């Protein structure tokens, strides 16, 4: 038999584009330095508010571009060979795997989504006795508990069905909803059982109460009876309910089933709960008291498994003796299903997962992406030199339903347990930011841990993304606030990160955490040149001036690089156009609001909360989304910046054209401004359509349009003073 040395578990290769990226960065940085020099010389001769704003915009653009180049210096691709795993470890030697699934609100995150996710991972091609699934219900809802009681019953039929027929799509919703499903003898029967379960769960969520007819035994009735008077989502005792236990519960074929445990940690208005990071830490502790598996997988409730062999791919790194012993986690990309043909909101995040994550993989490793990460449990207990080695065979000797184990599990799920401990600081997921995933990965990397990116051809997980613009923008605003919390913390990547992780890795983190300051240059360029056009003022070099071509080269160079990266990572030109348009919308609205929100919080005038992204979709919204129509519909202030920009760019462009053709003005001095206004106007077409041409429920609310017109007019009057 060939040895494991001749049969590698994985390979790593530097992408060919690395050399091109480095050469381009050198040339482009010279152009940036030349432009900044031009600005400084201009300021020395005649300083004005316009020239100061342009210098500010270009300085921020230069900073953000420079940090983003760190992703492009060592782009790396990897490949795993799970067929070689048997030469490294026998199946009985695989480490235990605890899967941690988080959900928070049964009305925004329908329980059936979490149920499908849990069932998909319970059906992994992995030793059943080594697999446990823990579900955190941070909404403390008996509706969610009931849904998982139903899931436990259905699992007894679903797991043997998948095992017998070697089903690939082991998420029931995906399997039965496939446009060309594979049919087996029992398919119709299992589908009827699934539909019956789904109907009961959805009826319970819709009514808000659980019919006694749905409760099948006294144990379930006793568990649900804990929701008595005074039990609220924000004030309740811990609930730990073992729904399935390996060795005691069997499926219909007589095989054991994985452990399935429902957890709702204690909540009190007097104690901080630290959002998702707090929920994950509670699951870490509860799982440690019950199964204590050395490998942990974290998942969002809507991110179901799409490949039953995903754990084996992770083991190709975690069990490889040649890997760096400081390897802390294996991160899989988030891939989203249900996105329309041209991805009008740029929700696939292809550029992030295909380009930026592979760039970090060549350095200290990719960040935690919030879902789809396989962790060594010991990384949550200290630095590589301090963290205790986890015994791969260590299992809690008592039944997970025993009184002692349950008492300990309830204790560690209490809201006072973390007091006077290192949890959230030097242990577990770290507190201090709404983006606990990035913050934790930054600190883990600074402690010396490393990570790898695993991006198989068949996506390991499939999730859902928002399909209306309001939810997309609010989600990005929440991210931007959390990222700024990291950027300006004591662990700022630009200072602490560069020193502790290395220059390039620190710059990668800085590029992400300073996301929101993109709002400064984009807002300036979205309004200032256009307002100057309205006031017949030229603020850029003439077309005959060499500096004009420096601006053009910088614009085309940056856009051209991103376009090539996007298209070469299997994206289309139309998708790229929609991606860059959606990105600018996020910058103008989400990042601007996030920046203001963070500044207000910093001076004590605002408090930041965590809002769960709505996963419930109305049928009419879904139809418009599949047709590629933008969804506005809500009279929200978050639409004001992009609507104002649409108005200013349109009027500015028409004004510039009028000056050239009707007032016999010179196009040389205004060409760059007209081009910018025209570019903005083309990108704003969905907004004009929503303001004027549409009559459906997703159109721009009249209130938003009128307020935007008033604000745009006020901005023009104010600018007339400056020009």
Structure, described:
- This protein has 723 residues and is of the alpha/beta class.
- Helices cover 50% and strands 9% of the residues.
- It contains 23 helices and 13 strands.
- An eight-stranded mixed β-sheet has the order 5-6-4-3-7-11-9-12, sandwiched between helices.
- The longest helix is centred in the C-terminal third of the chain and has 30 residues.
- The radius of gyration is 27 Å and the shape is globular.
- The termini are far apart.
What is the structure about, briefly put?
With 723 residues, the chain is of the alpha/beta class. The chain has 23 helices and 13 strands.
Layout of helices and strands:
Blueprint: E1 10-14, H1 17-45, H2 49-68, E2 76-80, E3 97-103, H3 111-122, E4 131-137, H4 142-165, H5 172-177, H6 187-207, H7 218-224, E5 239-244, E6 259-264, H8 275-290, E7 295-300, E8 304-305, H9 310-318, E9 327-331, E10 335-336, H10 350-361, E11 373-376, H11 403-412, H12 436-446, E12 450-453, E13 461-463, H13 469-487, H14 493-501, H15 503-513, H16 519-534, H17 546-568, H18 573-602, H19 619-626, H20 640-661, H21 667-683, H22 685-693, H23 702-722
Parallel strand pairs: 3-4, 3-7, 4-6, 9-12, 10-13
Antiparallel strand pairs: 1-2, 5-6, 7-11, 8-13, 9-11
Helix pairs in contact: 1-2, 1-17, 2-15, 2-16, 3-4, 4-6, 8-11, 12-14, 13-18, 14-15, 16-18, 16-20, 16-21, 20-21, 20-23
């Amino acid at each position: 038999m060939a040895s494991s040395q001749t049969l590698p578990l994985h390979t790593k290769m530097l992408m060919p584009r690395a050399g091109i990226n480095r050469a381009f960065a050198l040339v482009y940085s010279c152009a940036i330095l030349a432009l900044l020099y031009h600005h400084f010389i201009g300021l020395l001769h005649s300083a004005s508010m316009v020239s100061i704003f342009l210098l500010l915009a270009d300085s921020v653009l230069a900073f953000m571009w420079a940090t983003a180049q760190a992703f492009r210096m060592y782009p790396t691709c990897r490949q795993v060979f799970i067929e070689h795993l048997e030469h490294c470890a026998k199946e009985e030697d695989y480490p235990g795997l605890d899967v941690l699934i988080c959900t928070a609100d049964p009305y925004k995150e329908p329980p059936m989504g979490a149920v499908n996710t849990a069932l998909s991972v319970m059906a992994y091609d992995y030793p059943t006795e080594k697999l446990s699934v823990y579900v955190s219900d941070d909404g403390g809802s008996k509706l969610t508990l009931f849904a998982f009681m139903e899931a436990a019953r259905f699992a007894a039929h679903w797991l043997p069905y998948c095992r017998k027929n070697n089903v690939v799509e082991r998420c029931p919703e995906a399997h039965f909803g496939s446009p060309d499903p594979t049919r087996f003898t029992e398919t119709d029967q299992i589908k009827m059982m699934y539909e019956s379960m789904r109907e009961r769960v959805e009826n319970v969520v819709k009514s808000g109460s659980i019919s006694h007819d749905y409760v099948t035994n006294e144990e379930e009735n006793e568990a649900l009876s804990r929701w008595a008077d005074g039990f609220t989502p924000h004030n309740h005792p811990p609930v730990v309910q073992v729904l399935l236990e390996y060795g005691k519960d069997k499926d219909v074929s007589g095989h054991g089933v994985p452990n399935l445990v429902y957890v709702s940690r204690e909540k009190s208005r007097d104690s901080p709960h630290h959002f998702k990071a707090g929920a994950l830490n509670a699951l870490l502790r509860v799982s440690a008291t019950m199964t204590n598996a050395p490998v942990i997988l974290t998942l969002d409730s809507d991110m179901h498994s799409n490949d039953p062999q995903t754990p084996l791919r992770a083991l190709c790194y975690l069990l490889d003796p040649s890997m760096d012993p400081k390897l802390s986690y294996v991160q899989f990309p988030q891939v989203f299903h249900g996105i329309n043909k041209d991805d009008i909101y740029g929700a696939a995040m292809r550029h992030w997962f295909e380009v930026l994550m592979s760039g970090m993989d060549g350095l200290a490793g990719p960040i935690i992406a919030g879902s789809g990460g396989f962790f060594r449990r010991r990384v949550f207990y200290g630095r590589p030199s301090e963290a205790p080695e986890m015994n791969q065979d260590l299992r809690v000797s008592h039944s997970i339903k025993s009184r002692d184990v349950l008492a300990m599990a309830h204790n560690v799920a209490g809201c006072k347990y973390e007091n006077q401990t290192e949890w959230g600081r030097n242990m577990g997921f770290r507190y201090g930011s709404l983006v606990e995933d990035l913050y934790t990965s930054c600190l883990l990397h600074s402690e010396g841990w490393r990570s790898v990116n695993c991006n198989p051809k068949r996506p390991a997980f499939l999730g859902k993304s928002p399909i209306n613009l309001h939810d997309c923008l609010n989600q990005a605003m929440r991210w931007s606030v959390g990222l700024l919390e990291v950027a300006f913390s004591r662990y700022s990547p630009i200072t602490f990160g560069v020193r502790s992780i290395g220059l390039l890795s620190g710059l990668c983190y800085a590029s992400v955490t300073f996301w929101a300051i993109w709002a400064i240059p984009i807002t300036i360029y979205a309004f200032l040149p256009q307002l100057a056009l309205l006031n017949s003022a030229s603020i850029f070099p003439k077309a005959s001036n060499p500096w004009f071509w420096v601006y053009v080269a910088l614009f085309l160079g940056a856009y051209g690089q991103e376009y090539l990266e996007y298209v070469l990572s299997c994206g289309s030109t139309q998708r790229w156009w929609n991606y860059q348009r959606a990105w600018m919308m996020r910058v103008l609205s989400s990042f601007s609001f996030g920046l203001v929100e963070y500044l207000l919080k910093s001076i004590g005038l605002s408090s930041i909360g965590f809002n769960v992204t709505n996963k419930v979709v109305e049928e009419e919204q879904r139809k418009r989304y599949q047709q590629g129509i933008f969804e506005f519909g809500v009279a929200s202030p978050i639409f004001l910046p992009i609507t104002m920009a649409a108005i200013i760019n349109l009027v500015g462009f028409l004004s510039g054209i009028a000056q050239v053709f009707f007032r016999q003005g010179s196009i040389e001095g205004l060409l760059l401004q007209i081009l910018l206004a025209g570019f903005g106007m083309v990108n704003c077409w969905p907004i004009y359509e929503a303001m004027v041409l549409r009559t459906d429920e997703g159109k721009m609310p009249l209130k938003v349009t009128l307020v935007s017109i008033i604000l745009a007019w006020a901005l023009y009057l104010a600018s007339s003073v400056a020009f």
